[in-house]
Amino acid sequence: MKPILEVENLKMYYSTKLGYVKAVDGISFVLNEGESLGLVGESGCGKTTTSMAIMRLLAENAEILSGHIYFKGKDLLKLNNEEMNKVRWAGISMIFQAAMNSLNPVYKVGDQIIEAIITHEPNVTFEEARERVVNLYKLVGLDPKRIDNYPHEYSGGMKQRAIIAMSLSCNPDMIIADEPTTALDVIVQDMILKEMSRIQKKLNMSMIYISHDIAVIAEVAEKIGIMYAGKLVELSDSVTIFKRPAHPYTIGLMSSFPSVKGEKKELVTIPGEPPNLLNAPDSCRFAPRCPFATKECLEKEPPYEEIEPNHFIACFHPQNLRKQVNEYAKG
Amino acid sequence: MSNTTEEMTASSEVFESPFKIKLKLMWRAFKENWKIFSESKIGMLGFWIVIIFAVAGFIVYPILASTVWKSTSLSSMVSYNPVTGYDFTIASNPAPPSLTHLLGTDPLGRDILAQLLYSTPREFALGIIAALITVFLGTTIGTISAFYGGVVDTFFMRLADLTLLFPFIPFLIVISGMMTVNLFMLALILGVLSGFGGITIILRSQAMIVKVKPFIESAKVSGASNPYIIVNHIIPNIMPLSFLYMMFNVTGAIFSEAVLSFFGLLNIRMSWGLMIYTADTAGYIVGTNIGTYWWLWLPPGAAITLICGAFYFIGRGLDEVVNPRLRRR
Amino acid sequence: MIKYIGKRLAQILILLVIYVAVVFFLLHSMPGGIKAILATNPTLTPAARESILKAFGLNQSLPMQFVLYLKNIFTLNLGISYSFYPTPVWTIIAQRLPRTILLFTSATLISFFVGFASGKSLAWKRGKISEYVSTVIGVIAYTIFTPLLIFTLIWFFGSFLGIFPLNQFLNPDLWLHTNLDAQTIFLYLLLTISLVGLAMLVSFILAQKISHRVKTRKIIFYISTAIASALAIFWWAVSPVGIYAFDILWHMILPVISVTIVSYAGTMLVMRDSMLETIKEDFITTARAKGLPDKVVRDKHAARTAMLPVITNFVLSMGFVVSGGVITESLFSWPGMGMTLLNSTLAKDYPLASGALIFTGIFVLFAHLIVDIVYAFLDPRIRY
């Protein structure tokens, strides 16, 4: 499998009056063609910032300190704005967190999709582009008659589908879906996720799902990355993450979710709250909340290492952790 | 910092009258809001301009009038009286600025600076009286519309729509042409007219937000009467916004007064607008005279601009206190 | 859409009746009442006086008087002016209203586009010196006392530079040797300008229909506008009365600039704030993510949406602009509605003053209606 996106040691800080907010602090991962990756973490852990950094849509006070983002071999961070505009949507498109407000209220929904097509493929005529939108509407399960309606005439679920159609409009190689279903009710949520997963497999696209909800991610992603306080703490395929979670934070996340199948377990909550990322120290950021933290954890930053094939983790004690966890659960 | 909080908690354990506690809370809220306000450069600029004008009008002028500008032995006339003064030592009027008359004299031989300072407190009085009336009406109507809804609401909102469309200055011009309008009456007319206008719409929408808050419900449940809820719960919560709009209304009132007296339509002895009117009707601001006799129109015009601007700036500064989303992080 | 316009029209008519009622009762509460205001003037002959009393039904009951007054307004029977005796009030207003409409419309359009464009770029490029400078200029223009601004303009352009005429509607020396009627030429001018405006509107709509590409649309629009304006200028240039028309326009420049400055700053400041709010919206991020060029994101997405609050604000500030117009007209001795209103008030010419007041109100109400319709075209959420 060929890698399509490689993120290497990406560091992105927000500079504020009070100092640097270390929103994304040295994360690395690889996404292969046709693969889907889920990024999970609490709000404010840097998931959205990561996706915005990939799209180069960062706020003015955001600074990329180091790292590379290779998309199909090209470093996105070295492109100028015009070159980047060509990558946007045609190469990587995006489904946004707040679908409700992601469409411009004063233009027809269809026209907003056509606009994207015509911008990236100047040779396509308006009629051809419209035809493509009709097909996309069918693909995402929307009535093509709705093309000439305005966003305020759509329901929430319909808007989300329209946005998915829009994200597919330029045949991108990769889609980033940032909390694609958070604003929707559970039934619509499930439908949309299945739809997205189906389309992704059908078109053999790469996909990054971002969510705070590990259950949602588990449904659609082949690989899962767990983020905590601006760092990627664990990354592996979803089976491994669920079967053999190695980072204490992942374990905490797992046990704070009720399992529908399997035996009854008591839910364990993670004590404390995520650290303030403003001038965060260079130690393990989970250490203050970690029941297994040692002196080493509070002083040094744990390395991000492969502990078994395709299973990365940033923790000093991955090996003896299992045992301790079991003891902790008992006592 | 921590010391004062400790003192606060310690002293509140001792018995204190609710009034005193209320006062203390108000003082604390004032201090906090002042801190936010003082960070707004434009607000502070406006604040200092107002302070300078206030000091000039309320303190400097009375002192000058009773000392330096007292009637001279040369004649029985008061040479610096803003309304009836005349300086016999000057050959021809209007005279350009000189050491005896820092801003020159007007066509009738009166000192411009004295006129300027003499008018300042009157402008303040007019602006503030008119704005108080406006805010009082706007707050009352806005709250009542929001609280009772229905016919009352519709009536006042349509009335506000109409008032918004009302060509104010033309209307005032015709009114003041038909009856004798003095400063107090003008303040009354301005206050009442704008009190039914846009301010009621804004304060009503604010009151609507407050109305659905849980503490209003709990007040209702505990048996408070409607007037009690309006006076004690809703109005205090929309007061900051009222205060903000009061600043904008001061600007509007002073501006209107200046325009009307500039057209010579008001029955007043002296005002900034009237100063320009005097010069204009005497033919000193016509054609090429404009550049030559600049001291006749520039100082009063600048004074009007500055005071109107200052209250507007204070409003913008207060906007940042009242609307937290405008604050810069 | 038609339903919406119909509804607004009905509302405007109701507002108009209420407005007339307010003016009517104001006239009634004057010392001596409406009778004294309309018919007690030494210059009136007893016969004329009798006819006014009869026309306004001033000897009848109050409600009846109001109905008659309303009827008289709709039939444009507003009495006879004292100061221009025996010219009917309507004749004077009919002569002067078009002038104010032209002054107001051109100043409003210019100030709207200047304010819109500058507010847009201010918000887009924050933290530059240019932002600071134009904000300061905008705030000064917004707070300056209108007469002070006009004196400064007259002094600078008329006296210091000497490039614009100081005041008046036209140059009397030029018109001395001709028996042309200034009003006729003015009306033809107004007609020409309206035709050019109409041509622009038609070409804009046609461009929307013909092409879906912004570039082609722009080309069609600019070319047809250029052709229409060139034709108009050519027609006036070859016509023998062109110089007189030019004289009228020449005298209009400073008043238009004054009203423009008075109203532009408000537009600019509101546009800036509205644009700053809009930039934070999610659909702007979407537009950027779509890979649209910066300019397209700014103009097509951000500015287009940010424009809506500016239009609302414009409705609210209309009274302010109208009063600016009154001051401007009287300071430039430019005989439009504002100057008529002021002079007739000062001359105690009550029929003319009240007529002018009523028609100023009607003018504002109709401007409001037009803005409402424009708004409905711009905001799809309103139309239903």
Most extensive interface, chain pair and sizes: B-C, 44 and 50 residues
Number of helices of chain C: 15
Number of strands of chain A: 12
Helix fraction of chain C by DSSP (H/I, runs of at least 4): over 70%
- The sequence of SSEs of chain A as H and E is EEEHEEHEHHHEHEHEEHHHEEH
Please state the CA-atom Rg of chain A, rounded to the nearest Å: 21 Å
Describe this structure as you would to a colleague:
The complex is a heterotrimer of chains A (331), B (329) and C (384). Chain A has helices spanning 47-55, 81-87, 109-120, 126-140, 156-168, 186-203, 214-220, 238-243, 248-255, 295-299, 321-330, and strands at residues 3-16, 19-32, 36-40, 62-71, 74-75, 92-95, 174-178, 206-211, 223-228, 231-237, 304-308, 311-314. Chain A has an 8-stranded mixed β-sheet with strand order 6-7-8-3-9-10-12-11, with helices on both faces. Chain A has a 4-stranded antiparallel β-sheet with strand order 2-1-4-5, covered by helices on one side. By secondary structure, chain A is α/β, with parallel strands linked by helices. The longest helix of chain A is centred in the middle third of the chain and has 18 residues, at 186-203. In chain A, helix 3 (109-120) packs across helix 4 and helix 4 crosses helix 5. Chain A is 33% helix and 25% strand. Chain B has a single domain (45-326), classed as MetI-like (MetI-like fold, Orthogonal Bundle). Chain B is 73% helix and 0% strand. Chain C is an all-alpha fold and 384 residues long. Chain C has 2 domains: 2-74, no CATH class; 89-180 and 241-378, MetI-like (MetI-like fold), CATH 1.10.3720.10. Chain C has 15 helices and no strands. Chain C is globular and about 80 Å long. At the B-C interface, helix 5, helix 6, helix 10 and helix 13 of B face helix 1, helix 6, helix 7, helix 13 and helix 14 of C.
